[in-house]
């Protein structure tokens, strides 16, 4: 790794890093965005080799086999990876970053929802925490509003590289363009054709099946209901 960094708008370490097999969720952050200290506020204290890692990210050179065998280089490389990831989380909620992620979303680069009734709707990457090494990246389906483990595993991608807020900001900006189909289809459990009564605590029954809730009554409750119905019928008959 050279002491002085040479900069390149297209290519270099950023392009090399984002084109790695497991990094298809990542987009290339503009070098101008990275050079702006305002966008890096609060990151320096998180890294031991902050300056070296930043130089590596902005370098026009890519690592060779000799670099990847050097222990010191690997320490800086690991920090550069995490530093780029945290910068990436900030970049993708800017106008330019959102536009790049929209292209990936529309082309299905992030994968499809595994829920059958979502009919392979495109998903968005999301982190469960803003902190590094808390959890790996997950995917969020805008249609059923659930979070899933990506079908194609991304072992080297930390959820903090995307943050918790990205899907919400993305949908707020592109709600008219991405055309999210309403989640009108709902699986209803049945036994021999009969719908199963509402199970206490069922997420789908409680939060989504609002129009026609299925209520289960005990035999004693049914007797009371029948008694009330019969009494009401007698009163109605007398009034007539």
UniProtKB/TrEMBL annotation:
> What domain of life is recorded for the organism?
Eukaryota
The entry's protein name is Casein kinase II subunit beta
Which family does the record claim for this protein? Belongs to the casein kinase 2 subunit beta family.
Quaternary form? Tetramer of two alpha and two beta subunits.
Q: PANTHER family this protein is in?
A: CASEIN KINASE II SUBUNIT BETA
Mind listing the GO molecular function terms for this protein?
A: protein kinase regulator activity
Q: Which residues form the signal peptide?
A: none
What is the protein's species of origin?
Paramecium octaurelia
Gene Ontology terms: cellular component = cytoplasm; protein kinase CK2 complex
What Pfam families has UniProt attached to this entry?
CK_II_beta (PF01214)
